[in-house]
Amino acid sequence: MKNRHIASFKVSAIGLGCMNLSHAYGTPVSAEQAERVLLTALDQGVTFFDTAALYGFGANETLLGKVLKPHRQKFTLASKCGMQGVDPGDGKLVRVIDGRPETIKKTCEDALRRLQTDVIDLYYLHRWDKKVPIEDSVGALSDLVRQGKIQAVGLSEVSAQTLRIAHAVHPIAAVQTEYSLWTRNPEIALLQACRELGSAFVAFSPVARGFLCGEPIDIERLDAKDIRRSMPRFAPDNFAANQKLLPGYHALAREAACSPAQLALAWLLHKADHIIPIPGTTSVAHLCDDLGAVDVNLDAALLMRLEALINQNTVAGNRYNAQANSEVDTEVFGV
């Protein structure tokens, strides 16, 4: 496995986003299957694992703590605060964005316990709580660094401007945002800001929530709790339009002698050396296929054709619905 860097950490060029194992795409996989995926990733050279308090409302952190504790010295551990499950009083947890310093510190204590570790290597603010100055939330994370509970501070789904404000309070080791061929917003300003400040860029949903994986998605058969049901790009009309991009995309993958998923990941790895994609999967076979992207070489001509085929002008539909869009702080093309 090739390596890249986040602050002082040397991590695998492709990490593992662990959300899929517990959250967001329907019924979670069995504990046994989740363990197989995590241990196979470790065995295949993955040294960067990403989780969050939100995922399964703590269940994903608990899973990683149980499975990976014996191997803790072999990998860099990232988790997130600022968005978690809260019981409003009826016993049913709801997702809440809360970036108050006291909440961040409490969430970190809970995460350390669930993850069965003394320190979290990289701790992100999952969403900027716009009711709280970003300086206050990052200040709380800075306190956690001084206390030795986390080693580095990250942000998720923020604009270049917010990154710069936060970085003035405490160095931001990494920014995590959706980035793939069909979500190009980071190219507006954030990628360059990360490079200038020395922040790694961690790309989530790098294979476009499965769209670029090569296996057909039947939107009518998605689980009732699958988050793609609320995403405009998977709405019937938009999805039908987007599917017209796939024959050309699959042809480019064949030309590059790689799988469709590998093509999407290799594109990210070729874009800049401070980009680290973190695909998620519940399948050992898909995991191994994803990791093969580190050995895929793409020439400049193929990269140009790929970017001309799939970009912000050729994809139908926004990445988020109106509610989700209101919760992020990112630049958007055409606005």
Automatic annotation (TrEMBL):
Q: Which keywords accompany this UniProt record?
A: Oxidoreductase
Q: Which SUPFAM superfamilies match?
A: NAD(P)-linked oxidoreductase
Query: Mind naming one GO cellular-component term on file for this protein?
Result: cytoplasm
- Molecular functions (GO terms): oxidoreductase activity
User: Where does this protein come from, organism-wise?
Assistant: Limnohabitans planktonicus II-D5
Domain NADP-dependent oxidoreductase residues, every copy: 13-309
Q: Gene3D superfamilies, alphabetically?
A: NADP-dependent oxidoreductase domain
Q: Name the PANTHER family on file.
A: AFLATOXIN B1 ALDEHYDE REDUCTASE, ALDO-KETO REDUCTASE YAKC [NADP(+)]
Highest taxon in the source lineage:
Bacteria
A Pfam family name for this chain?
Aldo_ket_red
Query: This protein is called what?
Result: Aldo/keto reductase
